[in-house]
Design a protein that fits this description.
Helix content is 41%, strand content 19%. By secondary structure, it is an alpha/beta fold. It has two domains: 196 residues, Rossmann fold (3-Layer(aba) Sandwich), CATH 3.40.50; 58 residues, no CATH class. The longest helix is centred in the C-terminal third of the chain and has 33 residues. It is globular, with a radius of gyration of 20 Å.
């Protein structure tokens, strides 16, 4: 259910006051070196906007010519991350996020992830990092009823996941801060589903995951593939860029090397089955959001008028047959994408040494 007009109006007061102070304060100074390898050989990959929530601002992704790491530059600081995450997974956007992750297609994908890891370990205790509302543990429990699932996230959604019974224990905070204090050596399996790209220091997150694992425990990672040809073809309209939330894009070879250095052995690495068939429909949605008037958004100065609302509704109705066709094309092309360089994600399973 969409937020009410009154809820949006109340949030608008806060957003407008924040934006009146300027958006520049949301960013750290621009990096001159690659945060992954330290190289100074950086080149701009693309400039884009927030096509998802339509919050204001421009964002740049730079690529390292030496290690091929892509990263947001300048990067959002803590205040900026709070501003751009707010009302997406919780608050005004909570209902939309919950609906997205509870769909049958998401459950099917979650089950595939479980099937990928169970040949390597039979987990008794599983920590899902970046669990949000806990939809992955809820789906995984259908296949692993004897496994105890815990969840960790920085927002209030993880507490809601525990209240709803999707996880048996909630940790609210950062893995890098809680690993030593509360989680050390507790888990057979730690999962990070499209989590690392959101973090400010992915290397520190991998080290923290190792701390939370028992010796011989396993780490399961799924993450966007920045070397996908889809990203090159679709440019700023490629869904996995997902600006401004995604901060780092790590090529598979870099990830494998860092896992080995951190004290893991990679036991499985694959592109195909990690692919999510959303590239075309997501790109079309971004274009529609660009050309059509916006909904009633709290970060807009005022509620859209009757004509703007009618134009958006009419545009979406007119585009519906195209959206259905494009979504069908995504699904039809998925088997090809999974076997080619158009695959948009990869999966790694690593054992703690």
């Amino acid at each position: 259910m969409a937020p009410s007009t009154a809820e949006v109006a109340r949030a608008r007061v806060t957003y407008q006051a924040e934006m009146a102070r300027g958006l520049g304060r949301f960013f750290l100074p621009r990096e001159t070196r690659c945060p992954w390898c330290g190289s100074e050989r950086l080149t701009q990959r693309l400039r884009t906007r927030d096509w998802v929530q339509a919050k204001p601002g421009e964002f740049t992704l730079d690529r390292c010519r030496d290690c091929d790491h892509t990263f947001q530059n300048p990067r959002l600081n803590a205040e900026g991350l709070d501003f751009y995450y707010r009302d997406f997974y919780d608050g005004l956007g909570a209902e939309t996020s919950a609906e997205m992750f509870s769909r049958g297609s998401s459950v099917k994908r979650f089950h595939a992830s479980v099937h990928a890891v169970t040949p390597h370990i039979a987990p008794r205790a599983w920590l899902d990092v970046g669990t949000a509302l806990g939809h992955f543990p809820a789906a995984a429990r259908q296949l692993l009823p004897d496994t105890e699932f815990h969840g960790l996230d920085m927002g209030e959604s993880v507490e809601q996941a525990a209240e709803a019974g999707r996880i048996s224990r909630a940790y609210r905070g950062f893995l890098t801060e809680l690993a030593e204090k509360e989680l050390a050596g507790q888990y057979d399996l730690v999962s990070m589903f499209h989590y690392l790209e959101h973090t400010t220091d992915p290397k520190a997150e991998l080290a923290a995951a190792r701390t939370a694992l028992k010796p011989g425990g396993h780490l399961l990672i799924e993450i966007p593939n920045p070397q996908s040809l889809s990203g090159k073809v679709m440019g700023k309209y490629w869904v996995p860029w997902f600006q401004p939330q995604h901060l780092h894009f790590i090529p598979l070879a870099n990830m494998q090397e860092e896992l080995n250095r951190t004290g893991f052995t990679v036991v499985a690495a694959e592109f195909g089955n990690a692919h999510i068939p959303v590239d075309l429909i997501g790109g079309l949605w971004f274009v529609l959001n660009r050309v059509l008037p916006q909904d009633d958004l709290a970060w807009r100065p005022r509620k859209p008028g009757r004509a703007a609302r009618a134009t958006r509704l009419g545009g979406l109705i007119a585009a519906l047959p195209l959206m259905l066709a494009v979504h069908g094309l995504d699904l039809a092309l998925a088997p090809i994408a999974r076997r080619t360089r158009f695959c948009n994600a990869y999966r790694l399973i690593a054992r703690r040494n």
